[in-house]
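[audit] Reproducing an earlier prediction to check determinism. Same input, same settings, fresh worker. If the tokens differ from the archived copy the diff job will pick it up downstream; this log only records the rerun itself.
[audit] input (269 residues):
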Amino acid sequence: MMAGLWIILSFCYFCQLCMAQTVRPQIANPKFATNNPTLSTVALEKPFCVFDDLMSKGASYEVYLYVTVVSARTSRPYVTDNSSKPLNATFQQTNGGQSGSYRAAVFNVPNCASLPNLSDAADPIKAPAVLTQYLIRVGDNTACLYDPNYLEACNPPLSEDTAYRFKYVLVDQTTGVVKDQTLWSHPIKTRKLKQPSTIDTWPGRRSGGMIVITTILSVLMFVLVIGFLAAVLLAAAMTSEEIPTETRYVSQTTQQAMPRPQETIELET
């Protein structure tokens, strides 16, 4: 019986050791990272509750994020050297991941006991802290390539229309050795910039619904124009009929005084 219990415990411990090696980095939930991927960035979920069972109490750990191009010249990009220490290859050294994997970011191990409350992402005040706790954005540092004094992991913009893979690595800071790592993610491709010349504006390529809506709007516009012109002409006609004919009056003060007949007779006598 003790032997059976030992086998079960050993099997459970082995499963815990292998758990991280069956996990792949995932693209962030679109509810919290809209427009993802972009032309030069990819937002990933942080590895919550992935490495917890392998961390010893009192030890210090960090998570390294490695990036490689899917079409890289090496089919199996490594993240450790022969002594199981993490590689410090940079973006420049690997030509942006074309010749191998480079370390893009370093961050603390996410706290599995304090998961982010994603409902707080709707609060403008709490959203930045929640998203920082929940995700890591690859390609969001535009200055590190041109700063000679930059000492941290450089996370420059990614190339557009390019497929990448990502991997999380747990590093023991005391020994400097890789404790565990996830699988490489499935390919995640950045978006492609559409050139204005590639936008098809030919009506024949539009959907039937769009053609019907456009036709209806054109007819309505024509009817409105005709109605407006008719209203203007009608108003002009009514205005001309209501203007009265001007009557001229001759002022009595301008009439010449004529002698009365009676006064003429008296003068003659």
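[audit] rerun output stored. Observation attached for the diff report: The mean pLDDT is 79.
[audit] end
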